[in-house]
């Protein structure tokens, strides 16, 4: 995934005919950080966001992290599970007789 993302960013930069040094300066990141990002060798989220902003392509983040459609706070909780269980004791009236088979 990192390699594909890096290739896409590199292709975008080359299609705009911009060198790495210029992009790094516009993004406010080091040249080494940009090279790592484009090479798929890992980078920070901050570097990725800064480079996308420098390209004016923040909308790419929507495809990486889509908006959640389910809010976990609205999910109805099920019944709480008991942590311990005691055996239920069958209480019979004092004058009753038990039948065993």
UniProtKB/TrEMBL annotation:
PROSITE patterns: HTH_CROC1. This is Helix-turn-helix domain-containing protein. The lineage of its organism: Bacteria, Pseudomonadati, Pseudomonadota, Betaproteobacteria, Burkholderiales. It comes from Massilia frigida. It holds the Pfam family HTH_3. It comes from the Bacteria. Residues 9-61 form the HTH cro/C1-type domain.
